[in-house]
Write a structure and sequence with these properties.
This protein has about 550 residues and is of the alpha/beta class. Among the domains are: about 45-180, Rossmann fold; about 435-545, 2-Layer Sandwich (GMP Synthetase, Chain A, domain 3). The strands form five sheets. It has a nine-stranded mixed sheet with strand order 3-2-11-10-12-13-14-15-16, with helices on both faces. The protein has a seven-stranded mixed sheet with strand order 7-6-4-5-8-9-19, with helices on both faces. A five-stranded antiparallel sheet has the order 1-17-18-20-21. Helix 1 crosses helix 3 (about 80-90), helix 2 (about 45-65) packs across helix 3 and helix 10 crosses helix 11 (about 280-285). It is globular. It starts with a strand and ends with a helix. Belongs to the ATP-dependent AMP-binding enzyme family. One of its GO terms (molecular function) is medium-chain fatty acid-CoA ligase activity. It holds the Pfam family AMP-binding_C. Keywords: Ligase.
Length: about 550
């Protein structure tokens, strides 16, 4: 038997460029092609126009005295200014600090202080978030923060019209940058403790965006609908950098994900590719107006961010015309993608795995205890190594050493299996694995089975404390509209004889929605916490009947 190790050999070399130099190469090749469409702003840019606006912002920041390595935070939903600032800071060697639009005062104060941001560019307000009021509340405790600027306000427009550094100074700054310089800090949404700032270089994210897009077979003819958040790698790397490395068009349907606006944008802008986490695709497929939209322009797309239900993947391919849709797997610390399915993979490979190792990347699966590589077909922790691995967590050498070992392997915390052909299946998070009476139970396996129930639209399986077995299986389910109530007896009857007895949920709880991050990832730890409360406050029989 072969070991669970694979390296992504490739005849296509890595890009040895900074992000700014790469953008300007694309402008020279595709200057008059459409680069960016922001539907909710009613605006569009060619590559030449985009680059001109990026330079305008870069020269304003240069005139303010921002130096290579200074940190600039951006705190806003998806908008054109976000993207302009992304590329402007890259041209200056200023490290962009992505701030989750859902953060509140405690979280934003921590991120700005921990990263030492010298400047913040923020939305004035969005939905229930009054960013200006929150910054006013915490600014006194942030001595490094010299400048705060609010997008789409009179002061923003005045700032854009202000003094610019000479063009020659921008050229000189760009010429002095290295592609190995840190250029981006993204804070991981830690489930316990404070988030950690994954520090990424030009080389990390430019190449990852390029190879993800290459895996989707992008050309300058493609138009990519990006409803995922820009503050996350999915938006700014796989979306923005994936497009600009190929001359493709970035399309933002709304400030944050909205299923109807996404469908409208795909139709109106004749998008060829659509991104999303599984919950986003489920929201579109189950939208009451779904059948009204012409999605014939779609060819491909990416489903990533969390385990992708097989049935959802199949519906996306058939009902949304995304015949070449792929799965990507990765994490912020790896820029983010380490594996990807290919357009010519079989349906089984594209629905049952996360693909094979990415170009110029290594992966291995190890025994979590001994750290030795396991045989193919055996489960263990997935590790990855290569150009994509972060420099480290910002100002946190201890946490960096826990995540990246002495040989340069990033330990993902995900449990996976590699088959003989090198395809990888993620079977769960090591911390999500349920140990019931000595049996290892992988929630993903039970979730995939329960997705086949005709009344279940979405399901999440977690472990809950149990005096007899240590842990028991609990399924949280969302039902299709109009479905009859579903109780534990119904679920057990559906499972009977089809999955092992120890995998059959002991508890079932029906909900209208799951707790999610702004990127659409379901927060299982919150479900576990809620389950403990339910079990402690209600009679178990009441829970079992949902």
């Amino acid at each position: 038997m072969a070991l669970s190790y694979a390296s992504g050999t490739s005849a296509v070399p890595l890009l040895g460029q900074t992000i700014g130099d790469n953008l300007e190469d694309t402008v020279r090749r595709f200057g008059e092609r459409e680069a960016l469409v922001v539907v909710h702003e009613g605006k569009r840019w060619t590559y030449t126009q985009l680059n001109d606006d990026v330079d305008r912002i870069a020269r304003r920041l240069l005139a303010m005295g921002l130096q290579v390595g200074d940190r600039l935070g951006i705190w806003a939903p998806n908008c054109s200014a976000w993207t302009m600032v992304q590329y402007a800071t890259a041209k200056l060697g200023v490290i962009l600090v992505n701030i989750n639009p859902a953060y509140r005062t405690h979280e934003v104060e921590y991120v700005l202080r921990q990263s030492g941001c010298r400047m913040l560019i923020a939305a004035d307000a969005f939905k229930t978030s009054n960013y200006r009021a929150m910054i006013d509340e915490v600014r006194g405790s942030l001595p490094d923060l010299e400048h705060v600027l609010y997008i789409d306000t009179p002061e923003w427009n005045d700032w854009l019209d202000g003094q610019q550094a000479p063009e020659g100074e921008l050229r000189e700054r760009m010429a002095g940058l290295s592609f190995d310089d840190p250029i981006n800090i993204q804070y991981t949404s830690g489930t316990t403790g404070f988030p950690k700032g994954a520090t990424l270089t030009h080389h990390n994210i430019l190449n990852n965006g390029f190879f993800v897009a290459r895996g989707c077979n992008y050309t300058e003819q493609d138009r990519v609908c990006i409803p995922v958040p820009l503050y996350h790698c999915f938006g700014m790397v796989m979306g923005n950098l994936g497009c600009t490395t190929h001359g493709a068009t970035m399309v933002y349907p709304a400030p944050s994900f909205d299923p109807l606006e996404t469908l409208r944008a795909v139709q109106a802008e004749r998008c060829t590719s659509l991104y999303g986490v599984p919950t986003m695709f489920i929201a579109q497929l189950t939208h009451p107006n779904f059948a009204e939209f012409d999605l014939a322009s779609l060819r491909t797309g990416i489903m990533a961010g969390s385990p992708c239900p097989v049935e959802t993947m199949k519906q996306t391919m058939s009902l949304m015309n995304m015949r070449e849709v792929g799965i990507c797997y990765g994490m912020t610390e790896t820029s983010p993608v380490s594996t990807q399915t290919a357009a010519d993979d079989t349906i089984e490979q594209r629905t049952g795995t996360v693909g094979r190792v990415h170009p110029h990347v290594e992966v291995k699966i190890v025994d979590p205890v001994t750290n030795r590589c396991v045989q193919r077909g055996e489960s263990g922790e997935l590790c990855t190594r290569g150009y994509s691995v972060m420099l480290g967590y910002w100002n946190d050498s201890e946490k960096t050493a826990e995540a990246v070992d002495a040989a340069g392997w990033m330990h993902t915390g995900d449990l996976a299996v590699m088959d003989d052909a090198g395809y990888i299946n993620i079977v769960g998070r090591s911390k999500d694995m349920i140990i019931r009476g000595g049996e290892n139970v992988y929630p993903r396996e039970i979730e995939e089975f329960l997705y086949s129930h005709p009344d279940i639209v979405d399901v999440q399986v977690v472990g809950v404390p149990d005096a007899k077995y240590g842990e028991e299986v609990m399924a949280w389910v969302r039902l299709r509209e109009g479905a009859t109530p579903l109780g534990i007896d119904d679920v057990r009857a559906f499972c009977q004889g089809r999955i092992a007895h120890y995998k059959v949920p002991r508890y079932v709880h029906v909900v209208d929605e799951f707790p999610m991050t702004v990127t659409g990832k379901i927060q299982k730890y919150k479900l576990r916490d809620a389950a403990v409360v339910l079990l402690g406050l209600e009679d178990a029989a009441a829970i079992r009947t949902a």
